[in-house]
Amino acid sequence: MTLAAIIAVLFLGGVAAWLVERYRPGASRWATLASLVVSLVLLAQLWASATPGSAHHWWQSLEVAWIPRFGISFFLAVDGLGFLMLALTLFMGLFGLVMTWSDIRFRRGFFYFNYLWTLAGVVGVFTALDLFLFFFFWEVMLIPMLMLIAVWGHEERTFAAIKFFIFTQASSLLMLIAIVALVYIHFNASGQVTFNYLELLDAQLSPVSAWWLMLGFFVAFAVKLPAVPLHTWLPDAHTQAPTAGSILLAAILLKTGAYGLLRFTLPLFPDASIQFAPVAMAIGAISVVYGAILAFAQRDMKRLVAYSSVSHMGFVLLGLYALNTVAIQGAVMQMVAHGLSTAALFAIVGALQHRLHTRNMEQMGGLWTELPRLSAIALFFAVASLGLPGLGNFVAEFLVLLGSFGVDHWITAFAALGMVGAALYALAMMQRAFFGESRRTTTAADQKGLVDLDLRETLAMLVLAAFLVFLGLRPQPVFDTAAPAIARSLAPVTAVEAAVTSNSTDRPTTAANWPAATHRGETP
Fold first, then answer.
1. Among residues 287, 177, 272, which one has the least CA distance to residue 223?
2. What's the confidence (pLDDT) of residue 448?
3. Beta partners for 67?
């Protein structure tokens, strides 16, 4: 019941935060803090009781009939991959709360209600193994995030919220159609109506059906990732969202797209995924380079960090569709490391905007002398973002490129250019904002000087920095935790590739069978 308890604590905590603010101003923050701490304690208990090396696939599972007539159940389960995503979700939720403790000045109860419900929806997404329940939580996490942007966002928040809603809802509709079609095809073949993921893995699909259903899932997850050209909602949403909303978007919500691809798209449609893999890898490589170029061109620091997320998540897409363990381990590490580093960068931008009332780097400069603590921390996370050896981001990107190189040399070489672009935009951001001469117009309100990060903000940042150093120097615990889940997700793909290779053993290598034979770097 631990998984259900975590979701319930977050849902009920959101309601409690909304209610207590009416009677005692400021109490909603403490209710939110209590909900997150209790959830982390429950997650720690789950980790302590887990047996990752056992033959049982899931560390913990709960299945209760919900709508039996349509084969819908309340089916939650967690394995190593799900645990990593849950830990990232709850830790980043706590980090966002601590960093923005005093930022929300109006309707705080309703803000923290939406904040906790977004987290509850994400936890549901990472644990649901009934596709109807998965879609339910997918929608639950989107609506509160829409409210966070629309109500507490910045100048153009309405436009950003509408754009976010249109992109996510349109792609969600495609996924819903694909889910219903998959269930219907399975029903025609087996006579059983079920939304159970484990049972749908055995669905017998024609190549054409599998191809179109795979595209429905892929588009929905690629929008959330996001991948070029489905990324255009992200810079606007990030720029206009409040700092806490940007942290949730970057650290958590983007990861639901990558998780969906690994958990659902690859195992459910292995044959279609193999055929589509070269296209997906090309999209990932283009996202890496395109995101880096646009990040370098930005003057708004928040848009720069937003486009850097497009670039970094491109590595995730590239690694997932390389369809080998090394690259996918790198993609999982990138999901964790990017969540830590980019959340910190958005928190830094939020802190600067709170102090300077601008995000335009052309109006900054020389901040190192006035804000030395904030500037030093910003430098650490900037070099983490560009992939400095010894930090988690470097390990992730290196493994993605290593695993992808044996699959497609040219796509991998093109994606590697994104690492050069990352160095350019990260160091340019530091030069424009923190070094050189000050280009800030001093007002009467600034006469007392700027206030550096306080103890609360500094400790929160240092905790994330310590995690990134640990991931860079000791990544093996993450690899060991995720390895069984990755192996299960790759098993259907490996089986299809083995069958194709076996069938083509007695045939000469031709243009027709070359891609299947060489997909994972194997000699045809």
1. 287
2. 57
3. 72
pLDDT tens track for 186-224: 998 888 888 999 888 888 888 899 999 999 999 999 999
d(CA 290, CA 315): 12
What is the Cα–Cα distance from 291 to 15, expressed in whole angstroms? 38
Helix (H, G, I), strand (E, B) or coil at 436: coil
Q: Where are the alpha helices (DSSP H) in 357-391?
A: 367-370, 372-385
Tell me the two tokens of residue 145.
Answer: 């995030």
Rounded Cα–Cα distance for residues 57 and 70 (Å): 26
Rounded Cα distance, 317 and 327, in Å: 10
Contact between residue 348 and residue 414 where contact means Cβ atoms under 8 Å apart: no
Question: Mind listing the pLDDT tens digit for each residue in 354-376?
Answer: 888 888 888 888 888 888 899 99
Which position has the token pair 């998780």? 259
**387 alpha carbon, distance to own chain's centre:** 18
- Contact predicate 241/208, CB 8 Å: no
d(CA 153, CA 71): 40
For 499-515, write each residue's pLDDT tens digit.
Answer: 776 665 544 433 333 33
Cis peptide before 25 (omega within 30 of 0): no
CB-count exposure of residue 506 (10 Å: 0-12, 13-18, 19+): exposed
**Phi/psi at 118 (5° precision):** -60, -45
Strand blocks (E) in 347-445 = none
Residues in the chain: 524
pLDDT digits (tens, 9 = 90+) for 155-179: 888 898 999 999 988 889 999 999 9
Instruction: Please say whether the beta carbons of 224 and 260 come within 8 A.
Output: yes
381 Cβ contact partners less than 8 Å away, ≥ 6 residues apart: 341, 344, 345, 348, 461, 464, 465
What tokens were used for 340?
């830590």
Residues 6 or more apart from 7 whose CB is under 8 A from it?
76, 120, 123, 124, 127
User: What is the average pLDDT across 14-25?
Assistant: 89
511 φ/ψ angles, rounded to the nearest 5 degrees: -60, -25
- In this structure, the number of other CB atoms found within 10 A of the CB of residue 462 comes to 12
- Burial class from Cβ neighbours inside 10 Å (0-12, 13-18, 19+) for residue 328 reads buried
- Paired strand residues for 61: 77
| Contact in structure between 241 and 349 (CB atoms under 8 Å) | no
Burial class (CB within 10 angstroms; exposed 0-12, middle 13-18, buried 19+) of 169: middle
pTM of this prediction? 0.89
**Which single residue is written with the structure tokens 């980090």?**
95
Find the Cα–Cα–Cα–Cα dihedral 471, 490, 185, 70, rounded to 10°: -40
Per-residue exposure over 353-388, b if at least 16 CB sit within 10 Å of its own CB, e if not: bebbeebbbebbbbbbebbeebbebbbbbbbbbbbb
Tokens of 152: 């507490």
Of residues 93 and 155, which shows the higher confidence score? 93
Task: Give bridge partners of residue 72 from the DSSP assignment.
Answer: 67
